[in-house]
From TrEMBL:
Lineage, uppermost ranks: Bacteria, Bacillati, Actinomycetota, Actinomycetes, Kitasatosporales
Region (Disordered): 1-68
Cross-referenced Pfam families: TetR_C_14, TetR_N
Organism of this sequence: Streptomyces radicis
Domain of life: Bacteria
Protein's UniProt name: TetR family transcriptional regulator
InterPro entries, A to Z: DNA-bd_HTH_TetR-type_CS, Homeodomain-like_sf, HTH-type_TetR-like_transc_reg, HTH_TetR, MftR_C
Gene Ontology terms for molecular function: DNA-binding transcription factor activity; transcription cis-regulatory region binding
Biased composition (Low complexity): 8-17
Length: 255
């Protein structure tokens, strides 16, 4: 019998349910014979290879990636020095030495320039959580999958990802865009959790946990920025320590 979100959790008394349910989040489940991760009907294959794992590309694609990188770098530099709200698309294209038409071939807006690396991080999170062993409880799968996703998206260009996060933390407009994306991605993450547990997508528990996890990630990022050293190591530690506190904060005693 699976020790996840089965029917047993629903039959608990209201007094004992919070602690018992959180214990189920954190407790390892019995290991079964190796099997493919469960997916809800029509669920997308989040463990498919991501773009940076593709085969070598030709000169046209290298040029496209170089232009994309130049625009991203120019935008982040201006956001950090001039401010997100005060920077225009015209400022970005002048810094990157391209036309506005070129900018809009790559990005729909300056907001998209901020959101694209964050979307890549969300895709990595979905992939890594879907790959976690079936025996892991949901919260443990989120913890380990989240750390793996962070290492994955910062592996090639950590400075670009860290600069994006600094802009998000410093600029209310960028933070608002990030929070909208986080709200959207909670539903995707809940579908991955429901598929792992063999639950119908209308079961509310995966979405509750996904929402708590995404809020914790935002809080960890703000704490990293407030700490001030801006390093990848401190970001990883902030993520690790905050997610580790999620279970005890929800179900444990604070005294």
């Amino acid at each position: 019998m699976r020790r996840g979100w089965g029917s047993g959790a629903r039959s608990m008394s209201s007094r004992s349910a919070p602690t018992s349910v959180m214990a189920e989040f954190c407790r390892p489940r019995p290991r079964h014979a190796a099997a493919a991760p469960r997916r809800a009907p029509g669920h997308p294959p989040y463990d498919a290879p991501m773009g940076h794992e593709a085969a070598p590309v030709g000169s046209r694609e290298r040029k496209r990636r170089r232009t994309n990188g130049d625009l991203t770098r120019a935008g982040l530099e201006l956001f950090l020095t001039r401010g997100y709200e005060k920077t225009t698309v015209g400022d970005i294209v002048r810094r990157a030495d391209v036309s506005e038409r070129t900018f809009f071939r790559y990005f729909s807006s300056k907001e998209e320039l901020i959101l694209r690396p964050l979307r890549a991080a969300c895709r990595a999170l979905l992939t890594e959580v879907a790959r976690r062993p079936e025996a892991e409880a949901p919260l443990r799968a989120l913890h380990e999958g989240g750390l793996a996703a962070l290492r994955r998206v910062t592996g090639e260009r950590p400075e670009r990802h860290l600069a994006t996060l600094r802009v998000v933390c410093a600029e209310p407009g960028a933070m608002a865009a990030c929070l909208r994306l986080s709200t959207e991605q909670q539903h995707e993450l809940a579908r991955v959790l429901a598929a792992r547990e063999g639950l119908p997508e209308d079961d509310p528990r995966p979405l509750v946990l996904a929402g708590a996890f995404m809020a914790t990630v935002v809080r960890a990022t703000l704490s990293w920025d407030e700490r001030g050293d801006g390093t990848l190591e401190s970001l990883v530690e902030a993520a690790r320590s905050h997610v580790a506190l999620l279970g005890p904060a929800l179900a444990g005693s604070w005294r």
